[in-house]
Every structure is written in structure tokens, then in C-alpha cells.
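As agreed, record copied across for absentees:
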Amino acid sequence: MLLSGSPQVQPLDCLVVGGGPGGLTGALYLARYGRSALLVDAGRSRAGWISMSHNVPLFADGISGSDILQRQRAHVARYGGRMVAGDVTQLVRVEGGFRAEIHPPGGNYPCSIGARHILLATGAEDVEPDFPDLPDAIRRGLVRYCPICDGYEAWNQRIAVIGHGARGLGEAEFLARTYTPDVTLLTLGHPLDAPDRARAERHGIAIVEEPVMRLDVEDGRITVLCTADGAQHRFAVVYSALGLRLRSKLAVDLGAEHDRTGALVVDPHNCTSVPGLYAAGGVVRGLDQIVVAMAHGAVAATDIHNRCALPTEEVAGRSA
């Protein structure tokens, strides 16, 4: 194995960084193309937090995020795809491609691996709401983070959105336009300005600006939120719209083009502005969905396979 300490004679065709739906799809395609590839997974995919999704095609009765990942890993392994646990802490451009530093779990000695191409599928992490005595509310599934995925299941029910500014109000509007007229925006002490208040009123969105002082949790969900003014608020579902921290630093440090949030800009082949560096999933600018991440992985892996037939130095002069 490449992480056992034995020297690597030839660089990999591709190093896949991240074991979520996008990275695992890329690894599957590369394995079936017969390419030398390795997937390094830090085990932090947001997909694993999804208790049940009903908008993944072919699973009409729903499928959990952990089940998706488990099935995908088994699928990759069936075709000989190699996967290891660890963190890629640095990517460096070298002649013929890249060199990655990988830290295995448990404090084991790091190793260095060369690869002609990189598929970055490191995703993002949600900003957790500051609830009293309730850390990791999103990670534990008490607060949901994707109304596109599961807003349908709360059709015409009372929904709360935690957020402020353009992001919070935008998500509240999306829910009010799409799933239910009963939407409340919880700003957790952040006041809305007059234009935002008028915008919320046009969509029938209620506003609660007081901080949350206490909450009740029953049967795996938040049932009551008590605010500083003594009011109690009950909702069927609570969503967070506090934003994401994109795990794009490896690409940004290499000079990859990105927007102000850190989301990577890619071409039609899912290649970043750095030749040979591809990206898939939540780290890419655009719609953050499981099926989109899978498509990213398939597109990137196919282009990597095609480019492996060319001399490495020709990649820089590639055309779309």
C-alpha cells in the first residue's frame, strides 16, 4: 500500500481528496477506467449527517446519507478502487503534476504521494447556531440544513429558518415560495433593517429577533424555542441558514480561482484554473446537492482519464 512507507515508483494518475458522494463517484469512474488512483478520506462528509433523503433518484422510499456513503464505498471496492483514511494537509505543484502530504489517523507518520491529477472533493462544514447547551445541533440532525433535500416533507407545516442578512432571508423566501406559507425567520439577536423587513413582509415571513434562551428536544427534534422576551415558539422543522465554511484551502493555496466565499470556479470538465486540479461537490460554486456532486465526480474523472493519454506537459495548453 502507498501509505505503508514503501517508496512510490510512479505518480498516481489521480489522487482523490475527500470521500463524500462526489469523491466516491470520481473514484468509481477512475477504477472502472483502469486508472491508478487513491482516495483519501478524512471522514467528514456532510452527507453522513442526512437522516433520510427522498430526492436521490432510484430511492423513492428514501435513503440515509450514511447508507449512501456505505453503498458507494462498497461499489468502489468492487472494482479495486483504493481508499484510505487520512487528511491531505498540503498540495504542491511539481514537475509532472502534484505532491500531496497525507496524515493518516492516529498520529501515524505522514507520507508524501505524487499524482498527475488531483480531484478535490473536500466539501464544506455548516456554521452551527449558537444555542444554549446544544452544541453540534446540525451535526446531530436536530437542525436541518437543506430545504431542497427535505423541505417537501414539511409541506404546509410551521418552519423556522435560523439566519440573518441576505442568506437567511433568501432561504426563508425560498421556503415560503415553495413549501409553506408559515415561515419564521429567527435572527438570534441580529436586527433586520427596514428594506429586509419589508421584503419579509411581502412574502408573509414572520420575524423573531430575540436570542434563544432555552429549547426543548423531543424524539430527535427541537420542539420548543424560548426567546429572551419569554415567548415560546413551536415548529415542525428548523433550518439553519448561517452559511458554510468551504474546505477549499488546498486549492486556494495553489492559486485556484474562487469566489468571495471560497467556492471554486471550474470549467465544463470540472477543472479549476490550476491545470490538473479538479473539484467536485460542495467545494465547487453552484448548487450543493448529492446528485450534483456525483455528476461533478463523473465529469472530472472522465476528463482525467482522457488527459492521462496525453503527456503531462500538454495539460497546461488544454482546450475546453
Notes: Helices lie at 21-32, 65-78, 147-150, 165-178, 194-202, 249-252, 290-307. The CA atoms of residues 46 and 125 lie 7 Å apart.
